[in-house]
Design brief:
This protein is an alpha/beta fold and 376 residues long. 38% of the residues lie in helices and 18% in strands. The protein folds into two domains: 196 residues, Rossmann fold (3-Layer(aba) Sandwich), CATH 3.40.50.2000; 169 residues, 3-Layer(aba) Sandwich (Rossmann fold).
Length: 376
């Protein structure tokens, strides 16, 4: 017997995008443990997503967006996404709860019948993260006004910081905001045998402007003067892949900085095992699930001293917190980094707070309560 029918709507579905991957893993566990029926609808679906999740979900690919670009870089496709997503959703028969993910899908509740609706806001963008003038002009309208005031039954955020930012921007919507941190399946990460290679550092994430990979590349150029053995491996794909490859060549860092593209889970664990530290410079950021993955393998983290990462990382305990955009300080942190001062047990203990099982149970409780007391 099906317990709940959930329909999840996102602009993209990819196993390499942290926020989507965590929610997909959560929903897959709800299918396995509680016999949920889950459909996923997206403007574009990475082929690798089918390989990972096709056994759990009914996946509807609207085939609207180019996966190599972000939605705001394809403004002519946005109205098509709204039209096709609305048409698909209004045609659904079995529907208990709608769950929307990310900025544009979170606007769909304005146009749909009032069934229980969860809207996930991972982070709020800033002007710096927008790549063109139209996006910058539209940002306050679509995000600060429409998204944060969307007629959702409740808003979910993965961090206290994002919840506070959403609350500050709300004007007339007084929907409940819940914080459910992202969780990971800790078993494989905790089992990793740490074997750090001197001078090896790692970055993992989608190659997009807000991750600030160019800061790490410039810091690597400076740090290489003292650490001749320095290697910076960057895992991921995205809109910046060509630009970053060009930047590495311009700085004559082909022997120091390596773009690895997307890798499978086993290779990622092996890279984390070899790394002295993970470098994570993303902002605005919703949670930074790769930070938890690193800690779970006993790998400390070098990050900018900004929330929500600073909610997870304690300076000199779980890694180093660097002043925002201070490339020189980042370079010094790499040059002087000493992994031996970090207690692997402390790092792994911190990661245990973010067990996927806790995330699954939290969402199960939320969904059940919404079905009983929807308050649409």
């Amino acid at each position: 017997m099906i317990l709940l029918h959930i329909t999840f709507v996102s602009d993209y579905l990819s196993p390499f995008a942290g926020g989507v991957r965590i929610i997909a893993n959560t929903l897959a566990e709800l299918v396995k443990q509680y016999n949920y029926d889950v459909s996923l609808i997206a403007g574009a679906v990475d082929s690798a997503f089918y390989d990972a999740y096709d056994n759990y979900f009914n996946i509807v690919n609207l085939n609207i967006y180019n996966l190599r670009k972000l939605p705001h870089q394809q403004p002519s496709r946005i109205p098509v996404f709204f039209k096709d997503a609305k048409k698909t959703l209004t045609g659904l028969q079995n529907l208990d709860i709608l769950h929307f993910n990310n900025h544009l899908p979170n606007l769909l509740p304005y146009f749909l019948p009032k069934v229980p609706r969860v809207c996930t806001i991972h982070h709020l963008e800033d002007m710096q993260s927008m790549s063109n003038l139209i996006s910058r002009i539209s940002l306050p309208i679509f995000q600060d006004f429409l998204e944060t005031n969307s007629p959702c039954t409740l808003i979910h955020t993965p961090s206290k910081y994002t919840a506070e930012q959403v609350a500050k921007r709300r004007i007339f919507a007084r929907r409940r905001i819940i914080v459910i941190p992202n969780g990971i399946d800790l078993s494989k990460h905790l089992a990793v045998r740490k074997k750090p290679e001197p001078g090896t550092f790692l970055m993992i994430g989608r190659l997009e402007p807000r991750k600030h990979y160019e800061h790490a590349i410039l810091a690597a150029k400076l740090a290489r003067k003292r650490r001749k053995d320095l290697k910076l491996y960057i895992v991921g794909n995205g809109p910046l892949s060509i630009a970053l490859e060009r930047k590495i060549k311009e700085e004559n860092l082909e022997d120091t900085v390596k773009l690895l593209g997307n890798v499978d889970e086993q290779e990622k664990l092996e890279l984390l095992a070899r790394a002295e530290a993970l470098i994570h410079l993303g902002y605005p950021e919703g949670f930074g699930i790769v930070v938890v993955e690193a800690l779970a393998t006993g790998t400390p983290v070098i990050s900018y001293n900004l929330p929500p990462i600073s909610e997870i990382i304690r300076n000199h305990i779980h890694g180093l917190l660097v002043e925002k955009d201070n490339v020189a300080q980042l370079a010094r942190s790499i040059m002087d980094f000493n992994i031996t001062i970090y207690d692997e047990r402390v790092l792994k203990s911190k990661a245990k707070k973010y067990d996927l099982r806790k995330t699954v149970e939290s969402f199960h409780t939320v969904y059940k309560n919404l079905k009983v007391r929807p308050n649409c």
